[in-house]
Amino acid sequence: MKQSLFRIVWRSVNAALLVSVLVLLYAAGWEHSVRRYLDGFTDAIIPTDATPEQQVEAILLWMRNGPPRSSAPNPTGLAVRDPQTVLNYQQLLSVCGTATNAFLNLARSNDLQVRRLLLLAPDRRAKHVVAEVLLDGRWIVVDPTYRAVMRNAKGEMLTRKQLQDPQTFAEATAAIPGYPPEYTYEKYAHVRVARLPLDGMRLRPVLDWIFPGWDEKVDWSLFLERESFFVLSTAVLTTLFLLLVRMLLGWYADQRLHIPRFHLRSTLLRAGAAFFTTPEIK
Predict the structure, then answer these.
(1) pLDDT 10s digit of each residue in the chain, 282 long?
(2) CATH of the domain at 168
(3) CB-facing half-sphere around the CA of 74: CA atoms within 13 A
(4) 175 and 140 share a domain?
(5) pTM of this prediction exceeds 0.85
(6) Same structural domain for residues 214 and 97?
(7) Which end of the chain, N or C, is surrounded by fewer C-beta atoms within 10 Å?
(8) Could you tell me if residue 279 is inside a domain?
(9) Could you tell me if 80 and 199 lie in one domain?
(10) How does DSSP classify residue 164?
(11) Rounded distance, CA 91 to CA 30, Å?
(12) Is 38 among the domain residues?
């Protein structure tokens, strides 16, 4: 009975591992394709000798005055986490979440350090999404929806902490026509845990207790904003997990059940030896 059950589990794990490896290969090709597309895009809109600040301005200039973009009859059906889709549809470049995704993907493709920033209402619902760019050791706030770098009356670039001051916030937004005054910076986050099923299962307090500052110390932006990278990361973790399970099952078969099984490593070694060894002529 044990041996029959083991064989079912063993074959199931091997089948799942094979599927996981295939998905991993597909996701790696997908992510590589997306990165090549973004590299070509940034080469076209950002001067090669631009400083980091000029790179940010070049991306915002393209978002503000770029060529005509497509318009979908039903934008809700668009792939909002696919950079190639986001960069080519006007409706997506007009929404704070996807506009920020477009900016982050282009900036990261040009080796800028960037991350998303969610501005939260008192009930911790996201009211707006902006980006932070690391320039000269400071996380400067950029609002891709309004195509603007947040600056004070002197033209100095502002950080999130500086924008928490009402006077500084008023100075920064006065230069941006139609900027909603409720997009303030008192409450913020980098990861919207509430979007997970069951309202995030109240994970944020638990994560804050176990690992204070977890969403600030780890850059979650790429994982959240790019579907190809999400699939690749998930496939890598799943493959590693299934390999570990397979190793444990192999140990159990050898040490506890004492039943013969398929040894992938030894089979590959024998196949390699047979392939590369010069045959003897008798």
Answers:
(1) 777 888 889 889 999 999 999 999 999 999 999 999 999 999 999 998 999 999 999 999 999 988 778 887 777 777 778 888 889 888 888 889 899 999 999 999 999 999 999 999 888 788 999 999 999 999 999 999 999 999 999 999 999 999 999 999 999 999 899 999 999 999 988 876 655 544 445 666 777 777 777 777 777 777 777 889 989 999 999 999 999 998 898 888 878 777 766 566 666 566 666 666 666 655
(2) 3.10.620
(3) 2
(4) yes
(5) no
(6) yes
(7) C
(8) no
(9) yes
(10) T
(11) 24
(12) no
Going 93 to 94 to 96 to 98, the CA torsion angle's sign is negative
Amino acid at 212: P
CB 231 within 8 A of CB 23: yes
Specify whether 99 is located in the same domain as 232. Answer: no
Q: Which of 15, 3, 4, 2 is nearest to 245 (CA)?
A: 15
Token pair listed for 183: 């997009």
Structure tokens at 66: 């770029």
In this structure, are 112 and 11 located in the same domain?
no
Q: Is 134 left (phi over 0), alpha (psi -120 to 50) or beta?
A: beta
Q: Is 119 left (phi over 0), alpha (psi -120 to 50) or beta?
A: beta
Contact 84, 229 (CB under 8 A): no
Query: Which range marks the domain in which residue 247 is found?
Result: 1-32+226-267
Residue 219 to residue 182: CA distance in whole angstroms? 26
Q: Based on the fold, state whether residues 7 and 67 are members of the same structural domain.
A: no
